[in-house]
Design a protein that fits this description.
The chain contains 16 helices and four strands. It is mostly helical and 358 residues long. It has two domains: 10-232, no CATH class; 259-350, name from scop (3-Layer(aba) Sandwich). Strands 3-2-1-4 form a four-stranded mixed beta sheet, sandwiched between helices. It starts with a helix and ends in an 8-residue tail after the last helix.
């Protein structure tokens, strides 16, 4: 019941991390029907294109046993002839076998790309457990695979009967065919049979591939809690991140406030905004913003400025403009040079380093 309830809660699509982890473990949406399709495709190409030449090479290698069987054993040559014949047959079969192997690898590459994982090879107890094997054997998935295999057998068998049925009436005439003509006829018939079967298997493979992808994604579905836990592992706990962000802001605010006593003047709104400016004529080309803030922060800037005899000038339009366009530890914009120069000039004329300006 608990497992069923957990499955019911898994309503969310798997995350990319979940998909990547499944791929690393060798878990793919793999369709056996696609594998069978490519093996059959390779076999069809062999029968239609390569079979005549391969059969001819094999026939030429074996014909000596029929034409001159008496000469093979003379002088103890039987072993050498047998070895040479095996080499000739093996050479004729190298290309077909290599092609079949290539098609087998191609089927996996097309389904899930290149991937290597040893996870499926790692011994696991559930793989050898009789109870787990019994459950897999009589599971709904095994029943579905059995029904699918039965349907495939019936369909492919029906296609084979449809293709071969006209040939049953000509079986008596095949006995009169020369060996070469008989092989050619059998090869042609096999080619037609495989092409017809290939068409049916291709349609079944397409449907099965869609089903396997759907089943794979269903098996990787996640609950909302799993998504939240994964987000915490990947990006960090949102509460912890918020706390760290708050700590960073507090430290930056403390560093900013520590520079207010060094300011030349503080421009205020008068209550909502405060911008502290520093200017040393011999060292700076333009005034520098050493601190700025709104509301409570603006109040603290004014308090620190008052405690350290930093002049405070009320200029609401300029204070709002400086706050909106200038960042801390950056010089003011050229647009504000004139207005700020007038204020700093006034402060310096009043008192180079005095108390609150009137």
């Amino acid at each position: 019941m608990a497992e069923g309830a957990d499955d019911d809660q898994k309503t969310e699509e798997p995350s990319q991390r979940k998909l990547d982890e499944a791929r690393e473990k060798g878990q793919f949406a793999n369709s056996r029907e696609v594998n069978h399709l490519f093996m059959l495709l390779g076999g069809t190409i062999l029968v239609v294109m390569l079979a005549p030449s391969v059969m001819t090479r094999i026939a030429n290698a074996l014909v000596k046993f029929l034409d001159h069987p008496d000469a093979i054993a003379e002088g103890g040559r039987f072993g050498a002839v047998l070895s040479a014949t095996a080499a000739e047959i093996g050479g004729a079969l190298v290309t077909p076998l290599a092609m079949l192997a290539a098609f087998a690898l191609l089927s996996g590459f097309i389904q899930h790309g290149f991937s290597f994982s040893i996870e499926p090879l790692v011994p696991k107890f559930e793989k050898v457990s009789p109870g787990a094997g019994f459950k897999r054997l009589f599971s709904a998935q095994s029943l579905a695979e059995f029904v699918k295999g039965l349907i495939k057998l019936v369909v492919v068998g029906g296609v084979a009967v449809y293709v071969l049925w006209p040939e049953f009436a000509r079986l008596d005439r095949l006995a009169a065919f020369p060996p070469a003509a008989l092989l050619q006829h059998i090869g042609s018939l096999a080619g037609r049979l495989m092409i017809a079967t290939l068409s049916v298997v291709a349609a079944m493979a397409a449907l099965d591939m869609l089903y396997q992808r759907f089943r794979h994604m269903q098996g990787l579905r996640m609950s909302r809690q799993e998504l939240r836990d994964e987000m915490k592992q990947t990006d960090g706990d949102p509460h912890v991140k918020a706390r760290l962000r708050q700590i960073r802001m507090e430290r930056a605010r403390k560093r900013m406030m520590a520079k207010v006593p060094e300011a030349t003047v503080v421009v205020t709104n008068p209550t909502h905004y405060a911008v502290a400016l520093k200017y040393i004529r011999e060292e700076m080309d333009a005034p520098l913003v050493v601190a700025k803030g709104m509301d409570f922060t603006a109040l603290k800037i004014r308090e620190i400025a008052t405690e350290n005899d930093v002049p405070i000038i009320e200029n609401p339009p300029l204070a709002r403009a400086l706050y909106a366009t200038c960042e801390v530890d950056q010089t003011i914009k050229p647009d504000h040079y004139k207005a700020v120069a007038e204020i700093i000039g006034y402060v310096l004329r009043l008192k180079p380093r005095g108390g609150k300006a009137p």
